[in-house]
Amino acid sequence: MVFANGSTPLETSGPYRPRLADARLEQLLANFPAVMLQGPRAAGKTTTAARLAAHVVRLDVPAQAAAFQADPDAALRGFPKPLLLDEWQEVPEVLGAVKRAVDSDGSPGRFLLTGSVRADLQSQTWPVTGRAVRLNMYGLTERELLGNIARDERSFFDKLATGDPGSFSLPRDIPDLPTYVELALRGSFPEVAFPDREPSLRRLWLDGYLEQLLTRDAASLDQARNPAKLRRYFEALALNTAGLAADRTIYDAAGVNAKTASAYDQLLENLFILDKVPAWHAHRLKRLVKTPKRYLMDSGLVGSAAGLSTRAALADGELFGRLIDTFALAQLRPEAALSIERCRLYHLRTEGGRHELDLVVERDAGHVLGLEIKAGAAPNAEDAKHLVWLREELGDRFIAGAVLHTGPGLYRLSDRILAVPLCALWG
């Protein structure tokens, strides 16, 4: 892949680095005939899926795609299984062929599909309902980058549910504030997440990725007629990531109308670049706002879009907090998929903002975890007041809560509420 500014993905070398999605992907492939691995472009989906494939067909390569465009059913025949069909959205007709192949032989482990566009974008290109299961994959977490997966297979949320500070371990090197900002600005894409990459090369790659996203990728969905307007809108999103800014605040800043802004939101969600965390609703809690909270999926793209340096981010307290929140959620999303119990992520805010929580995690049987993300280094009881409120409101449904912070301290703040360094996610 060559980006619009002429840069190309940096080659990652060395042995395969295990991903949090590995075990789940293997389990799904062993039990279902087709598995679709979906997520942002260049998140490592192909590398992860190729380990399990007997053969790989790259549908973004014209020479390999030609046979599937001409006769996808015939093209599927003869390949050893599992067959990986990479970037399926380049030849969407292949989904119909997969459906027909699975209908005739539903044995597990036949097909892997990877794509960088939300699979059910258009109903006519989504014929594999009931035939393929989907698994989301995101950029590299610090835990994956450091190889701390096999050592403790529990997710962060499983550890928090114990309510015991002893369930967490910290890395030998505790990041300071500038280091956290550098990690956030580096981003999570494998091609730039390795420590031997020069910062200038990382920025070049991220700038090229963003240019590709806002021109070629957006145009491929036929929803972005004006790349300049889309770029302005993306920059407004970057400056308001992890926030509850009113829709009008964002589209006015970008100079677009409400209809265009809504279309851009849907476009960026379809490309797995924008995540809208829904508002949490509970019958026992009244007057909760219903507005979703917008996050860019990758904090490195926040820095690229806003032209941020480490110094500039540290000098702007509000933007620094948003950057850390976005970075933290990028670490937490894959942990939710790893959890023993299903985890559904929400945010909470009461009307008027009297109570607000960055994340409410709903688990099985309606049990709830709460998270506050703070850029400060020494949280106290005041920082935990919204968690205490939620605990008192929910009673036994509230399992545990944590204030995730940028300091070194791991300690108890209140009953079932801990102060946990953000780096405990990869310790």
Task: Draw up the topology in text.
Elements: H1 22-31, E1 34-38, H2 45-50, E2 55-58, H3 62-70, H4 72-76, E3 83-86, H5 94-104, E4 111-115, E5 132-136, H6 142-145, H7 156-161, H8 177-186, H9 190-193, H10 199-220, H11 227-239, H12 247-254, H13 258-270, E6 274-277, E7 293-296, H14 299-306, H15 310-315, H16 317-338, E8 344-349, E9 356-362, E10 368-373, H17 385-394, E11 398-405, E12 411-414, E13 417-421
Parallel strand pairs: 1-4, 1-5, 2-3, 3-4, 10-11, 11-13
Antiparallel strand pairs: 6-7, 8-9, 9-10, 12-13
Helix pairs in contact: 8-14, 8-16, 10-14, 11-12, 11-14
Structural description of this entry:
Strands 8-9-10-11-13-12 form a six-stranded mixed sheet, with helices on both faces. The protein has 427 residues and is α/β, with parallel strands linked by helices. Strand 10 (368-373), helix 17 and strand 11 form a beta-alpha-beta unit. It has helices spanning 22-31, 45-50, 62-70, 72-76, 94-104, 142-145, 156-161, 177-186, 190-193, 199-220, 227-239, 247-254, 258-270, 299-306, 310-315, 317-338, 385-394, and strands spanning 34-38, 55-58, 83-86, 111-115, 132-136, 274-277, 293-296, 344-349, 356-362, 368-373, 398-405, 411-414, 417-421. The two termini are 34 Å apart.
